[in-house]
Amino acid sequence: MVVTDLTRWLQRALTVCVFLFFGTVAGVFLLGLVLPPQFEVQRSLKLDTSRERLHPFISDLRSWEDWTAWSDRELVHEYSEPSAGVGAWHVWRESDAGAGRIEITAAGVEEGVWYDMTFDRDTEPMRGAFRYLPSENGVQIEWSLRGQLGGPLERALGPIYSWRIGADFDASLKLLGDLACADG
Description:
Strand content: 25-35%
Mean pLDDT: 86
Oligomer: single chain
Low-confidence stretches: none
CATH class of the largest domain: Alpha Beta
Strand order of the largest sheet: 1-7-6-5-4-3-2
Number of strands: 7
Shape: elongated
Largest sheet: 7 strands, antiparallel
Number of domains: 2
Distance between the termini: 82 Å
Radius of gyration: 23 Å
């Protein structure tokens, strides 16, 4: 009788676990069907510096290693020559995360820098921009990235992507501000 009760309890527990698992998968899938097929992340920071001082840190892709949150990862980098201005590109590879590419599509000291970013599994680029906005005693830099999300699972994970990218943007902008505002 004890064995029969234990067996019934295990069967019920297993049934509940199976329903919870497939219910969660179905819930995530359904959530992905109603969420938008695109994402956008935007962060900004006011800096006590000039556009002229800030611009080279952003328009030269080689300098991104000095201030982006991703620079501490073990990546293999390749850059165009020149590595700054419209048409400049940066390709990176990592054994775990795959590869990606950034290409500057517009750049100006007054307006900012626009770029396209693709990863090896993407079919269309994400669009990014650094806008230089007027601010008292300096410049406000606004960093944005937008792109398309694939199927329902990727759409369901979209808010997590946006949160994670936003945290990286915040950390990177702080490092960028430290560099651009340093005496030199």
